């Protein structure tokens, strides 16, 4: 297994040593980027050692936003953890809801009615749209584009958040899904509005590609930067657009076919280089696929109940046992691992956060690159500190 | 050719620059204090206690069952049960909250209290401009501040409120039927237990 | 009549100078040239900040500042009050004297450059024989103050920012000066006033601006790229690239000193635009012969306005380059192009006028541009990619 | 001695003295820059615009920055302990004073100092240009060649270092 | 492949490896394999590289704290009661010692199946909390094992960089343990706010 030697973190130390060979200690510059740094996407710190502007060592430091989410989950009832999941990755509360609901449904063996499944798909794909659009906005913003791409992304995101608000009552902390279905049905006229928003989305993507798709500066800044090999990506548990940009065909929507994803016709875009540019483009292409799913789902959605009648809201006590439920969240594999001891609170409530695990390879991608690339690479990983630190 | 992408980008920003003067689609800003978007019907901010009729103390639906206190995820509700009982909307004697405080600075607007309430007594308000200069006291709301009329509920969530009314009416009819049956049997009427409607299924 | 309006400020100055005793006459005369510059350009700076914020806002589909005064026009006053009343924080370990001197020196150096800019016919503070040289000489003084700011703050970000700024300014000074040398060659003088006068003639209705020649156009583009880098504007704003270095060399500055840096940045941007106008766009000369009735200073400031708008537009569109790419661009693209352009200007000068001269000189500029540009892209293998799709 | 001359001369000398006596190397460079600026002021005072501006461009814009880079890239800016011994200091000042005295005496006794100066010629940039391209074209080219050689040498040195780093 | 097949495959490939199936009674039916410490690295390498499973992707690493719990058994004992031998039911209380458990959820990217769940248990909760680290096999475990070390106090032998990750260096306890007691002082961090300061002092005086 020769390739596997390169996937260990010892390889990083080896590379650091090589880069710093012949350089005295005093010539290296240690910079602590963060926790209050404009482009660390929250309170995140990178202890960087620089040789000139070249990164020779980088250690991510997290935990500034740690609130022991898992402990809170253990001390609360199953239902009461649902609003807390909104606060994990606060950009995509609906997919968090779904992952948690899926884990509890697996644990307790609850079915979800057809209409609720469609509602979940629609809201989750809308979440993916708004997450990806803001992420590429943030990424280009980090590369110094004065906010213009970000503002365009936010303009579109706002339309989707308005949809969320009129459906769930809140723009970001949606708290929408329940074990065995969804909380409330679509209000009148919602579907038409959503169709209009989705129909306008490709235009935004075209605009985005005009603005930056062939921009020489963007290409120079992103192509060949932070390349992540296939083997390392798999071994390090990297998921989501990062993994697919490295050319690995692994989309949980296709693999697990959770919910009703096997009913939709969509494709999984794959990159070949695994660099920042590929991650950027994969997100754009994924948005186009999400639009396809949304078109189909909003066309096919059947009438019917939105909650499983057997599902209990008060006094929900699943049988003792355990379950791991995972979905393809916009940032990667979001999993919830629950252990029930038969009481009203989970004995163990574990979140498998995609951005936290994806951060593992940050050093691998950054060593040898310039400090400005670090920012671009971090932006392309797409972390949300609410989820990293929990 | 070098510079092509840059020129395309410049053309796009120019289009947006001009577009922001002519198209409302592009310039989506709402200038908040002067312009206000209508609030969505599903909007939720902080809970309030519904009361029927005019007097908030007499008409309060809450029976201090403390389910919401237990289920509240951030534990921001404090309830003290009353010593005595007062008649509720159906005329049955019920406890009432002697104290019902919500720490709004802790509340996370999750609506779980509304979902678990079997008496349709707590609902979500839509008022959001609640700033206060008192950091500790000003955000701890007592039952008087929390009590809002059923009419207010109808005004902010008409569909929801209509549905709630149906549920309550059905319950009332059931209760009346049971009382009648009990009277007909002329046996001592059992203490009517409020049946728990599936609150989660409300549309 | 148009002549009077055109020269009104000159006449006014002479009239005022005529009323003071002879002993103080030279001092008063100089004061009357300097004070308007010191008053006018900071005022323009205030206007430009609000214009920039509103322009960027519109580019980004939002309003921009619109709360202070009608349409937010008084925003700079609010900003000014805010910065002036802010606490002046000096880091504990900073070199206090140098820390204080740096912004002062920077503003002084940028102001000096205005001395040789002819803002209108007969309107120049100092008509020097070596005006262009003077402009670049004082421009190079800013590097030192940037270093002082970055070094004295004793902050790693500041130092990195200062190092970047100096490396960038030195590298881009070379193409900047080389591209303006073409104009000096063509005009045969270093005096800004004579350079403008040489461009103020017309053929038919079209002006004799240097930008309307192949070498002039190429030189103008090169000059503007280098000028953008010199004034640390996007996409060359690495020294203060806030996503990497917080605010670069002025990270540790606050209050009034911070405002001075801000002022210097905009003053530098305006003065270098003014120099570009002087060298390539005929200074205060009207763009078409029948428009000469409009006063010359209005033309100058109108052109300046367009330059500023261009800077804002570019800032609203482009992401930032990386340090090594910036350097590569300066030394591997800008410098060869500037040298080729220099040769082209010489060829233009010695060829007989006619269509052939146009063709030869255009080819001499366009061909290396295409070749160098392609080499630049291929060397980095930059391309638009296609992607696979899996089911 | 006019007032501007006095001010500029005082500044120049102060800068030069500070450049020698300050402890922090970066401060020394900044003081040295002041001396350079004073020198440029002198040139301007003498009506030699071109030389004055060239002095600013080259010495302040380039040499000072180069020195600063050299200091920052090679060593710390704070020196170690001050190692000078008082005896050396005393003997050094005696030598310096003696040299200065001899120079003053030589200048003062020379007939040149008693000659009346002709009015300074008004030299324009154009004349300097013609002179450079005409009479001094060979020295100019030689200097150009020398600088090119130095440039290439520097590039080769840097490339060598880069390869060694790899 | 069922869990039993996986078990037998491991046992045949790695002689001496103890593999115990932990059944999961819930509807999810995600059963797991309990491994012994000595052979876990070999088993993991086998699962990743050699077997039919090709579990190249370790998704989730979870720490669990199982407190010592009382197990009551009703045992029929013969006793002499008032001189007569009688069969009496007695409740025997045995304390099952607590332990820390680490659960690995493995999937296969290549074959697109999973999860196969591995469990490792420490001997107790206090001193013998060492477990072999699986980070050399799956890099994905690096941060998650650090997190478990941080929050549960499991010491992973062979982990390249075992430091606290979410809590700060110098923090003493392991907050995700079930018997963790909050220090209850962080709510009143010192601020210029006099009132808060006062309360903070009172609080710290009490503890």
**How is the quaternary structure best described?**
heteropentamer
Order of helices and strands of chain E: HEEHEEEEEEHEH
List segments of chain E where confidence is low: pLDDT < 50 over at least 5 consecutive residues: 189-193
Instruction: Give the tally of β-strands of chain E.
Output: 9
- The DSSP helix count of chain A reads 17
How many domain units of chain A?
Answer: 2
Largest interface: A-C, 53 and 40 residues
Kindly state the percentage of residues in helix of chain A: 40-55%
> Residue-averaged pLDDT of chain A, rounded?
85
What percentage of the residues of chain E does DSSP assign to strands (E)?
25-35%
Which structural class do the helices and strands of chain A define? Answer: alpha+beta
Q: Any idea what the shape of chain A is?
A: globular
> Can you count the helices of chain E?
4
Regarding CATH, which class of the largest domain in chain A?
A: Mainly Alpha
Tell me the name of the CATH homologous superfamily of the largest domain in chain E.
NADH:ubiquinone oxidoreductase Nqo5 subunit
| CATH homologous superfamily (4th level) name of the largest domain in chain A | Cytochrome-c3 Hydrogenase, chain B
| Strand segment tally of chain A | 9
Instruction: Tell me the major beta sheet of chain A.
Output: 3 strands, antiparallel
Mean pLDDT over all positions of chain E:
80
Spatial arrangement of strands, main beta sheet of chain A: 1-2-3
Task: Explain briefly what this protein structure is.
The complex is a heteropentamer of chains A (about 400), B (about 200), C (about 400), D (about 170) and E (about 210). Chain A is an alpha+beta fold and about 400 residues long. Chain A has helices at about 1-5, 10-20, 70-75, 80-85, 95-110, 115-140, 150-170, 190-215, 215-220, 230-235, 240-245, 250-255, 275-300, 355-360, 360-365, 370-380, 385-390, and strands at about 30-35, 45-50, 55-60, 175-180, 180, 270, 320-330, 330-340, 345-350.
Characteristic terms for this protein:
heteropentamer; A: 390 residues; alpha+beta; Cytochrome-c3 Hydrogenase, chain B; 3-stranded antiparallel β-sheet; 9 strands; 49% helix; globular; D: 166 residues; mainly alpha; Four Helix Bundle (Hemerythrin (Met), subunit A); 2 domains
Please tell me about this protein's structure.
The complex is a heteropentamer of chains A (390), B (203), C (391), D (166) and E (207). Chain B has 203 residues and is of the alpha+beta class. Chain B is built from seven helices and six strands; from the N terminus they run H-E-H-H-E-E-H-E-E-H-E-H-H. Chain B has a domain at 52-124 and 135-181: 2-Layer Sandwich (Alpha-Beta Plaits), CATH 3.30.70.20. Chain B has helices at residues 4-22, 56-59, 67-71, 112-116, 143-146, 150-156, 158-185, and strands at 47-51, 77-87, 93-103, 122-124, 140-141, 147-149. In chain B, the strands form two sheets. Chain B has a three-stranded mixed beta sheet. Chain B has a three-stranded antiparallel beta sheet with strand order 2-3-5. In chain B, helix 6 (150-156) crosses helix 7 (158-185). In chain C, 68% of the residues lie in helices and 2% in strands. In chain C, strands 1-2 form a two-stranded antiparallel ribbon. Chain D has two domains: 1-76, NADH-ubiquinone/plastoquinone oxidoreductase chain 6, subunit NuoJ (Four Helix Bundle (Hemerythrin (Met), subunit A), Up-down Bundle); 123-166. The longest helix of chain D has 29 residues, at 137-165. With 207 residues, chain E is an alpha/beta fold. Chain E is built from four helices and nine strands. Chain E has helices at 3-13, 40-50, 141-152, 194-206; strands at 19-22, 32-35, 57-66, 69-81, 84-96, 99-108, 113-121, 130-132, 155-157. In chain E, the strands form three sheets. In chain E, strands 1-2-7-6-3 form a five-stranded mixed beta sheet. In chain E, strands 4-5 form a two-stranded antiparallel sheet. A two-stranded parallel ribbon of chain E has the order 8-9. The N and C termini of chain E lie far apart (56 Å). At the A-C interface, strand 1, helix 6, helix 7, helix 8 and helix 9 of A face helix 7, helix 10, helix 12, helix 13 and strand 3 of C.
């Amino acid at each position: 297994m020769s390739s596997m030697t390169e996937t260990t973190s010892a390889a990083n130390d080896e590379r650091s040593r090589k880069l710093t060979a012949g350089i005295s200690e005093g010539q290296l510059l240690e910079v602590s980027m963060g926790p209050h740094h404009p482009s660390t996407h929250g309170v995140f710190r990178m202890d960087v050692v620089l040789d000139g502007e070249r990164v020779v060592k980088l250690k991510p430091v997290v935990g500034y936003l740690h609130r022991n989410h898992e402990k809170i989950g253990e001390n609360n009832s199953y239902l009461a953890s649902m609003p807390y999941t909104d606060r994990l990755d606060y950009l995509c509360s609906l997919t968090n809801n779904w992952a948690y609901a899926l884990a509890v449904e697996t644990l307790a063996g609850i079915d979800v009615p057809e209409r609720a499944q469609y509602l979940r798909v629609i809201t989750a794909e809308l979440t993916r749209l708004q997450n990806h659009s803001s992420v590429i906005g943030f990424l280009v913003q980090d590369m110094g584009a004065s906010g213009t791409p970000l503002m365009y992304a936010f303009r579109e995101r706002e339309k989707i958040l308005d949809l969320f608000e009129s459906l769930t009552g809140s723009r970001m902390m949606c708290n929408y899904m329940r074990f065995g279905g969804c909380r409330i049905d679509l209000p009148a006229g919602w579907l038409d509005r959503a169709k209009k928003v989705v129909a306008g989305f490709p235009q935004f993507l075209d605009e985005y590609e005009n603005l930056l798709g062939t921009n020489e500066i963007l290409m120079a800044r992103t192509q060949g930067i932070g390349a992540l090999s296939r083997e390392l990506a798999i071994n390090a548990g990297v998921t989501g657009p990062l993994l697919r940009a490295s050319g690995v065909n692994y989309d949980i929507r296709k693999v697990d076919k959770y919910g009703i994803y096997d009913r939709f016709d969509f494709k999984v875009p794959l990159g070949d280089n695994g660099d920042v540019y590929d991650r950027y483009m994969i997100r754009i292409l994924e948005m186009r696929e999400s639009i396809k799913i949304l078109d189909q789902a909003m066309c096919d959605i059947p009438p019917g109940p939105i909650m499983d009648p057997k599902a209990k809201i008060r006094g929900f006590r699943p049988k003792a046992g355990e379950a791991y439920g995972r979905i393809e969240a916009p940032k990667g594999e979001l999993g919830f691992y629950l252990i029930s001891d038969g009481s009203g609170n989970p004995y163990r409530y574990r979140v498998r956060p995609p951005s936290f695990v994806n951060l593992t390879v940050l050093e691998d991608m950054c060593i040898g690159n310039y400090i400005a690339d670090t920012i671009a690479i971090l932006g392309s990983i797409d972390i949300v500190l609410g989820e990293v630190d929990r | 050719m070098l510079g092509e992408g840059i020129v395309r980008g410049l053309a796009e920003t120019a289009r947006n620059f001009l577009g922001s003067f002519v198209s409302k689609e592009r310039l989506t800003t709402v200038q908040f204090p002067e312009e206000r978007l209508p609030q969505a019907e599903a909007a939720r901010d902080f809970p309030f206690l519904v009361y029927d009729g005019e007097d908030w103390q007499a008409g309060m639906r809450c029976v201090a069952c403390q389910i919401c206190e237990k289920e509240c995820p951030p534990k921001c509700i404090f309830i003290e049960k009353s010593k005595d009982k007062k008649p509720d909307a159906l005329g049955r004697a019920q406890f009432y909250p002697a104290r019902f405080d919500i720490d709004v600075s802790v509340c996370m607007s999750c609506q779980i209290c509304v979902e678990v309430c079997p008496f349709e007594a707590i609902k979500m308000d839509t008022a959001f401009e609640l700033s206060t200069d008192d950091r500790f006291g000003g955000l701890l709301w007592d039952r008087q501040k929390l009590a809002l009329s059923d009419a207010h509920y109808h005004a902010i969530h008409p569909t929801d409120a209509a549905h709630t009314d149906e549920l309550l009416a059905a319950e009332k009819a059931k209760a009346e039927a049971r009382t009648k049956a009990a009277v007909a049997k002329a046996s001592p009427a059992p203490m009517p237990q409020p049946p728990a409607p599936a609150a989660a299924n409300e549309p | 009549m148009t002549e009077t309006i055109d020269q009104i400020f000159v006449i006014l100055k002479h009239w005022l100078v005529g009323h003071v005793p002879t002993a103080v006459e030279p001092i008063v005369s100089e004061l009357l040239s300097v004070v308007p510059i010191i008053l006018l350009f900071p005022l323009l700076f205030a206007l430009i900040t609000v214009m920039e914020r509103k322009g960027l806002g519109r580019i980004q589909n939002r309003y921009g500042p619109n709360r202070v005064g009608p349409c937010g026009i008084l925003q700079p006053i609010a900003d000014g009050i805010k910065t002036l009343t802010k606490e002046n924080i000096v880091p504990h370990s900073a070199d206090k004297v140098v820390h204080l001197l740096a912004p002062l020196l920077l503003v002084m150096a940028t102001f000096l450059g205005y001395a040789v800019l002819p803002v209108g016919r007969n309107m120049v503070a100092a008509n020097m024989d070596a005006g262009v040289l003077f402009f670049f000489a004082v421009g190079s003084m800013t590097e030192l103050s940037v270093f002082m700011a970055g070094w004295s703050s004793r902050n790693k970000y500041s130092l990195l920012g200062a190092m970047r700024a100096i490396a960038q300014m030195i590298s881009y000074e070379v193409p900047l000066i080389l591209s303006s040398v073409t104009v000096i060659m063509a005009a045969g003088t270093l005096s800004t006033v004579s350079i403008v006068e040489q461009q103020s003639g017309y053929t038919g209705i079209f002006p004799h601006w240097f930008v309307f020649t192949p070498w002039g156009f190429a030189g103008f583009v090169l000059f503007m790229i280098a000028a953008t880098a010199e004034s640390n504007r996007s996409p060359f704003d690495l020294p203060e690239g806030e996503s990497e270095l917080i605010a670069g060399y002025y990270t540790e500055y606050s209050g009034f000193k911070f405002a001075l840096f801000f002022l210097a940045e905009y003053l530098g941007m305006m003065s270098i635009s003014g120099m570009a106008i002087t060298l390539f766009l005929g200074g205060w000369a009207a763009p078409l012969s029948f428009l000469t009735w409009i006063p010359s200073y209005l033309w100058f400031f109108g052109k300046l306005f367009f330059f500023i708008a261009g800077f804002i537009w570019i800032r609203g569109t482009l992401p930032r380059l990386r340090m090594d790419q910036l350097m590569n661009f300066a030394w591997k693209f800008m410098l060869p192009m500037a040298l080729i352009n220099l040769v082209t200007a010489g060829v233009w000068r010695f060829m007989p006028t006619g269509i052939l001269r146009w063709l030869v000189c255009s080819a001499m500029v366009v061909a290396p541009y295409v070749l160098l540009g392609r080499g630049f892209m291929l060397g980095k293998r930059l391309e638009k990619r296609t992607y696979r799709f899996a089911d | 001695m006019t007032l501007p001359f006095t001010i500029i001369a005082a500044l120049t000398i102060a800068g030069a003295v500070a450049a020698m006596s300050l402890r922090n190397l970066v401060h020394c460079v900044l003081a040295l820059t002041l001396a350079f600026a004073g020198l440029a002021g002198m040139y301007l005072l003498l009506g030699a615009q071109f030389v004055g501006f060239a002095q600013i461009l080259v010495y302040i814009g380039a040499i000072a920055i180069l020195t600063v880079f050299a200091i920052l890239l090679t060593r710390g800016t704070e020196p170690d302990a001050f190692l000078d011994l008082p005896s050396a200091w005393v003997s050094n000042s005696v030598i310096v004073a003696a040299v200065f005295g001899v120079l003053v005496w030589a200048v003062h006794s020379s007939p040149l100092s008693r000659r009346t100066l002709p009015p300074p010629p008004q030299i324009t940039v154009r004349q300097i240009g013609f002179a450079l391209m005409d009479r001094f074209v060979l020295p100019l080219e030689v200097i150009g060649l020398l600088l090119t050689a130095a440039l290439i040498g520097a590039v080769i040195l840097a490339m060598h270092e880069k390869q060694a780093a790899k | 492949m069922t869990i039993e097949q996986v078990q037998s495959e491991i046992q045949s490939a790695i002689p001496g490896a103890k593999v115990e199936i932990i059944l999961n009674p819930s509807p999810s039916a995600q059963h797991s394999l309990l491994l012994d410490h000595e052979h876990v690295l070999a088993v993991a390498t086998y699962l990743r590289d050699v077997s039919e499973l090709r579990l190249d992707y370790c998704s989730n690493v979870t720490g669990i704290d199982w407190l010592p719990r009382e197990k009551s058994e009703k045992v029929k004992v013969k006793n002499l009661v008032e001189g007569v031998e009688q069969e009496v039911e007695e409740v025997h209380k045995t304390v099952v010692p607590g332990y820390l458990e680490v659960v690995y959820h493995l999937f296969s990217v290549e074959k697109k199946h999973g999860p196969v769940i591995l469990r490792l248990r420490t001997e107790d909760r206090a001193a013998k909390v060492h477990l072999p680290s699986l980070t050399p096999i799956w890099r994905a475990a690096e941060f998650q094992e650090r997190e478990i070390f941080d929050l549960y106090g499991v010491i992973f032998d062979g982990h390249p960089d075992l430091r606290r990750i979410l809590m700060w260096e110098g923090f003493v306890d392991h907050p995700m343990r079930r018997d963790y007691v909050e220090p209850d002082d962080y709510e009143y961090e010192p601020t210029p706010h006099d009132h808060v300061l006062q309360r903070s002092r009172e609080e710290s005086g009490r503890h």
